[in-house]
Specification:
alpha+beta
C-alpha cells in the first residue's frame, strides 16, 4: 500500500511517498503540487474500491440518500 503524507518544517514543506520495503521518497512541494499528487494517486477523496484515508478513517462520509 502506498502512503502519501505532507511533511512541514519551519522553512519548507515536503511530500513523502512511503511503500513497505522501499526507501521513503521525500521531496519539496508546495500545496498545489501536493494536492495534484494526491489526485493522481486517488488519495484526494473517497473512490469506489480504493482504500485511502477517506475510506479507512471515514473522512468526509458520503451523504445519506434523499428521498
Amino acid at each position: 500500500m502506498l502512503v502519501i503524507r505532507r511533511i512541514v518544517d519551519r522553512r519548507r514543506s515536503y511530500t513523502g511517498l512511503f511503500l513497505k520495503g522501499e526507501k521513503p521518497r521525500i521531496f519539496p512541494t508546495d500545496d498545489a503540487q501536493h494536492a495534484r499528487i494526491l489526485q493522481i494517486y486517488k488519495q484526494d477523496k473517497r473512490y469506489p474500491d480504493i482504500v485511502n484515508d477517506f475510506s479507512q478513517f471515514d473522512l468526509n462520509p458520503p451523504a445519506p440518500p434523499t428521498g
